[in-house]
Amino acid sequence: MTRTWQISDVTDAAVARIATARLAAAHGVPPVERARLTASLGAQLRLCLTKGGTWRLTLEALTDSRAGEGVLHAVVTPSPEAAAAGQPPWRVTVPCPEASADVGADAVVSGPAELAEALLGADEDTALVLERLAEQEGLVDFHREELQQTNQGVVALHAELDAAGRAQREAFAAERKARREAEDARRRLTFLADASAVLTASLDHHEIVRRLPELLVPEYAASVDVWLFDQDGDRPGPAHAAAAVAAARTGRPQYAAAHPGGLPGVDDRPPSALAPDRPLLCIPLPTRQAPLGVVTLSPPGERWDPDDAVMLIELTRRASTAIDHAQRYQHNRDIAETLQRALLTELPAPPGLTLAARYLPATHGLNIGGDWYDAFRQPDGGVIAVVGDVTGHGLRAAVMMSQLRTALRAYAVDGGSPGQLLTRLHIFLHHLQPDLFATAVIARFHPDDPTVTWAAAGHPPPVLRTPDGLVRTLDAKPGAMLGIPLRQEIADHTVPMAPGSTLALYTDGLVERRARGIDPGIARLAEALGSFGPAELETDLEGSADRILRPMLSDSERDDDVCLLLCHLGDGG
Predict the structure, then answer these.
(1) pLDDT tens digit string along 240-265?
(2) Which of 30, 86, 186, 514 has a CA 20 to 30 Å removed from the CA of 337?
(3) Do the Cβ atoms of 336 and 366 come closer than 8 Å?
(4) Chain-centroid distance, C-alpha 237
């Protein structure tokens, strides 16, 4: 089917447009496509009328062989003038699945009545299209509202996610802060424990004072000044910061700076005139009675962390305890050593007998006051030489040693052999100090007797060197320790002692080593005594004593007293 219209004025254009709409409806073109076709054609026809001339509209219904359904082609051919000016034809194609095979004169508008009817039909199509558009607009509004609600949900979800993210970040930050604080606390506790071990390892308060700055600089302080008060109680003078004086007087830590430190347990003070540009933390060294001194520190940075300040105050307290213990130890050690040396006898010089003695206090700990030696004459002309060792150390051992020494001298005035004297000392000590014990060895020399009589009570055996250089240990069975709850009679032993012989009496501090026992030490002493020539012992017994001590003590830490008493019988004796 093909239809053609000549269009030269508005009426021709209206007739052609209405006819096209009716033919499209007759061929089953959908209302929407039909409305689009008539609208596009109307716009094109208005353009044609504007350009003038006679235009031709051709409408042709065909069947599309590829799609298998009908199509409606509309072509507007330009007027000759427009074609000459290069105006191309206008074409449009719409589907018509329900095309009618016979479309007759009903599609042609021949008069006003038909024109009005066609216009009404076109209005019906337009109304249908508008109804469809209204439906689509309602659907679009529904989807728009649904989209808006979805967007609101997405916004709310984003807000929740953002809040969750912030909460998670805050939790992570809190966890990192807690971990950092825990690590800092562990670091401070570790440092406090290690520093305390270093400070308490020494019993020399000067060494403790020297080590304290080494421990704190530079991590916890830029500088450290330790002020120890004099023993008579003098306090810091003008050369020290006012905060240090206040700390000494009040016993409270003081912080001197331009701004408050906010440190727990610390009083704030104005800046120090001695150091106005840097803060000072003055911490007293507390004891039960009064402070020992004041430690003045400057911070490693601008100021201290409050937790670091608490740790510094605790470390200072521990340092004070260590210094106090070291001073007390040194005081007691000095007293015991002074008492010990005061009680050691000035050796006699009997005819034919040379004596040389050495006493060395322990260098570690308060292990002094228990070892002693003595030598004195008896009324019958004999000479008593004794070396002893009281169990325990310190002042009590020194006092007990002096009592034993006095008792032995008193008993020896009435005579008696070494065994008898030791038996009396055993009874005396048991009744006087039941919880103290002692060991001793006594040798008795007499100018009319070519022998030496000796007795021992729990003591290392004497070592005898004969004039020919041979050395032997007098290992006869000794008695038990003095003072033990046991009744005993300590026996005497006699051994020949020719002129030129030397007898060595000693305490276990000379020969005993913890790792090796006492027997190897006695063997070393015998070897050292045998290494001298007869002339050396005869002419320089004092120097010989020193030459014995040097190799014997070269491998010793001297954690016990050492006594050595050499008794040399001269050739003229």
Answers:
(1) 888 999 998 998 999 999 888 889 98
(2) 514
(3) yes
(4) 38
